[in-house]
């Protein structure tokens, strides 16, 4: 790489955020809609062994991607709140040992209401966690039972109250477009959620993923989800209610008060660098000016052995060419309300977006180009976002 490229890369590392994602793959039970890399183990988990393996993979990854300052850390899963606070502390200490860490680093831990205890949350806070994200999913007991959740609505709200007392920043998830859900029911639930959420909500439409129990039920006609018209009405209620009550969407499924956006997830959507640590974790690293798309072994025990033998659990390390990187930037960036800078797309791909396609999509009301030149998807374009992205990328 020539000197100019090195300087550009150094400048990029100084100006852009850098995230570290750590995957804890274990859950108390497997939810019937979930296709994430999560596993149920009835025997006790050897947390000390996993903590050592996390530290080893962090060390190896930091050697490949040195000189970064970590701006966000996200402990996801699985159910990271099943970890002892000491395990979380060991992981965060390893990150701090091998990378520099920003003074205002955002450290998020995902938790399920069934595993929330005030004493454990105090331990996480002492370990360095400063934000939690709770997998509430619904605020009525019938829906929670249908979704295979182990907690009640009361337990969920109690967990939110513990999070509120323990952390300045917290969020929780809800799933909508559930069987038999009406827009009026969802509006009532959403108002209650916003009263409890304070600053951030993640609101996902239920999707039926192949390989899950819900997929089999759906194919057999035993699970009915709202039709397209009702699903669109539920989406519209989501946007209108959140806008009115001060939590507008900053990403297609995420809502926050101004300044309370999840900084770690913005790393993904803005196409910045992040390290993926743990079983089944994905990463995006720029090494010698080339974007690497990494993925680790999904099976927890196999990942452990691979890390202990090789120093990391990587099973895929793909070099993205300019077109692939630009397409990924487009796909992720257009999920954001802030949209994308077409000049960055041009710099990544080596060609500009087609002005004719932009003009047509503007005419259809799916996108706008704001006064600063940023290209943004409109409220009417977001429900057909996949089609908008495909049209622009063609």
UniProtKB/TrEMBL annotation:
Q: Return the SUPFAM superfamilies for the record.
A: Radical SAM enzymes
The record's section on Pfam families has: HemN_C, Radical_SAM
Cofactor dependence is on: [4Fe-4S] cluster
Which segments constitute the Radical SAM core domain? Answer: 12-248
Q: Name one GO biological process term.
A: porphyrin-containing compound biosynthetic process
Where does the record place it?
A: Cytoplasm
* UniProt key word Cytoplasm: yes
InterPro entries the record matches? Aldolase_TIM, Coproporphyrinogen-III_oxidase, Elp3/MiaA/NifB-like_rSAM, HemN_C, HemW-like, rSAM, rSAM_sf
Predominant subcellular localization, coarse grouping:
cytoplasm
Q: List the GO molecular function terms.
A: 4 iron, 4 sulfur cluster binding; coproporphyrinogen oxidase activity; metal ion binding
Q: Which SMART domains match?
A: Elp3 (SM00729)
Entry's Gene Ontology cellular component terms: cytoplasm
Function according to Swiss-Prot or TrEMBL: Probably acts as a heme chaperone, transferring heme to an unknown acceptor. Binds one molecule of heme per monomer, possibly covalently. Binds 1 [4Fe-4S] cluster. The cluster is coordinated with 3 cysteines and an exchangeable S-adenosyl-L-methionine.
Q: What is this protein called?
A: Heme chaperone HemW
